[in-house]
Design brief:
With 364 residues, this protein is α/β, with parallel strands linked by helices. It folds into 2 domains: 6-159 and 339-363, Rossmann fold; 175-337, 3-Layer(aba) Sandwich (Rossmann fold), CATH 3.40.50.2000. The chain is built from 15 helices and 12 strands. Helix 7 (138-147) links the parallel strand 5 and strand 6. Helix 3 (46-67) packs parallel to helix 4 (80-94) and helix 4 crosses helix 6.
Length: 364
C-alpha cells in the first residue's frame, strides 16, 4: 500500500491509554502508517477538558478532511471518553474513513448497564458503525459481544517491551513491594494498606524488616499519606505522587512484587510492565487480570478480602522460591503474548484489512 496513513485520537497524560500510545510510538507501525496522534483529552477542570476536546476535535476534523487517512484509530475508555470518541467516530463515518474503536476502559460494561435505554441504543449504534472494535482480551471481547452482537470484535492485547528478569534481594534485605496506579478505592489502595497493617504487627515482618511497600500514582495521594500515619506504617510504607516514565521504570527495576487489588480492571499497563521485568504479581481476579497472570503467572486474590490480600503478600514475601517462580512465569508470558513486536504487527494486519475493505467498497 502506497502512502498509507492513520489518524489517532487519544490522550497524552497519565494512565494506561497514554502509556500504550507511547509504547506504540516506538514501533515500526508509527512510521509505516505515518500516524498522526491528535490529543483530545487532558486532565484538569471541566472547562480544561472541554477546551481540550474542542481544540483537539477541530484539529481531528481538519486532518480527517485534509489528509483523508486510510484508517482512523480512536482510543476510548467509557463514560465521557466514549462520548468524545463516539462523536469522532460518526464524523469519520460520514467522511467514509474506516474506523478502529479501541476500548481500553475497565468498566465499559458497567457504563453500558447504568445508561438509559436511549443511550444504550446510541452506544450499540456507535460500536456497529466501527469497522473493527479492539478488545484487550477474551473477557472484554465477550462483554462487548453481549452489548453489540453484530459488531466485529478483534482481540489485541496491550503491549509491553520485555526488559529482563527481576533479580531477587540478597540475604537479609527486604522485599520491595510496589503499588502503581491511581491511588483510591477503585484500585484497592486503602484495602492494601489495611492488609499491610495486619502484616506489620508480625515481629518478623514489621518495621521494614521483611518487606517495604511503595505506593506511586496520582489520585488520593494525601489521603493515603494520612492513612499510613493512622496505621503507624511510616517505617515500611512510602507514598509517592505521579511518576514519569523513567521514574516508573526505575521503581520497577528495584522491586520484586507488584500488588494491585483493584475492584475492576481492563488490562493494566502497570501489571504488564511488572511482568516484563519478571516481578511477582499479586492482583485481584477481575477484568482481564486472570488472563494475564492466571495459570501460575501470579497470585490472584479477591479484591475486597483484606485477609486474603495479607496472606498472599505474606506468602510471596517469605517464600523466595515461589516468588521467583511466579516472576519467571510472568516474564515468559509477557514475552509470548504481550511483546510489542507481536502486537504492532497485529494492528498492522487489522489496518490493512479495514483499509482494503474501504478500497473495495469505493471501487464497487
Amino acid at each position: 500500500m502506497v502512502d498509507q496513513s492513520a489518524l489517532w485520537a487519544g490522550t497524552d497524560e497519565g494512565g494506561g491509554i497514554a502509556t500504550y500510545i507511547r509504547v506504540m510510538q516506538q514501533t515500526p507501525l508509527w512510521a509505516q502508517w505515518n500516524i498522526r496522534h491528535i490529543v483530545t483529552h487532558r486532565d484538569g477542570s471541566v472547562a480544561a477538558k472541554i477546551w481540550a476536546f474542542a481544540r483537539g476535535g477541530a484539529l481531528f476534523i481538519f486532518e480527517l478532511l485534509r489528509s483523508r487517512p486510510n484508517v482512523v484509530h480512536l482510543h476510548s475508555a467509557s463514560d465521557t471518553s466514549f462520548i468524545r470518541k463516539g462523536i469522532l467516530l460518526w464524523a469519520s463515518w460520514f467522511a467514509s474513513v474506516p474506523v478502529v474503536m479501541h476500548i481500553h476502559g475497565a468498566n465499559f460494561d458497567e457504563y453500558y448497564a447504568k445508561s438509559s435505554p436511549m443511550v444504550q441504543a446510541v452506544i450499540r449504534a456507535t460500536l456497529f458503525r466501527a469497522n473493527a472494535v479492539v478488545a484487550l482480551g477474551e473477557s472484554r471481547a465477550a462483554s462487548l459481544r453481549n452489548i453489540a452482537p453484530t459488531t466485529r470484535i478483534s482481540v489485541i492485547p496491550n503491549a509491553v517491551r520485555p526488559v529482563r528478569r527481576r533479580v531477587q534481594p540478597g540475604l537479609g534485605k527486604p522485599v520491595h513491594v510496589v503499588f502503581l496506579g491511581r491511588i483510591g478505592e477503585r484500585k484497592g489502595t486503602f484495602r492494601l494498606l489495611d492488609a499491610w497493617a495486619e502484616l506489620a504487627v508480625d515481629p518478623d515482618f514489621g518495621a521494614g524488616k521483611s518487606a517495604i511497600l511503595t505506593l506511586a500514582g496520582d489520585g488520593e495521594v494525601e489521603q493515603a499519606m494520612h492513612r499510613v500515619g493512622q496505621l503507624n506504617l511510616t517505617d515500611s510504607v512510602e507514598v509517592r505522587g505521579w511518576l514519569s516514565e523513567d521514574e516508573v521504570g526505575h521503581l520497577l527495576d528495584n522491586a520484586q512484587v507488584l500488588v494491585l487489588p483493584s475492584r475492576n480492571e481492563g488490562q493494566p499497563m502497570a501489571v504488564l510492565e511488572a511482568m516484563a521485568r519478571g516481578l511477582c504479581v499479586v492482583s485481584s481476579g477481575v477484568g482481564g487480570l486472570p488472563e494475564m497472570i492466571g495459570g501460575g503467572c501470579g497470585v490472584i486474590v479477591p479484591p475486597y478480602d483484606i485477609e486474603a490480600i495479607a496472606s498472599a503478600l505474606r506468602l510471596v514475601v517469605h517464600d523466595h522460591e515461589l516468588r521467583a517462580r511466579y516472576g519467571a512465569a510472568a516474564y515468559t508470558r509477557a514475552v509470548s503474548q504481550f511483546d510489542v513486536d507481536t502486537v504492532w504487527r497485529q494492528l498492522d494486519a487489522l489496518y490493512r484489512e479495514v483499509a482494503s475493505n474501504r478500497v473495495e467498497s469505493v471501487s464497487k
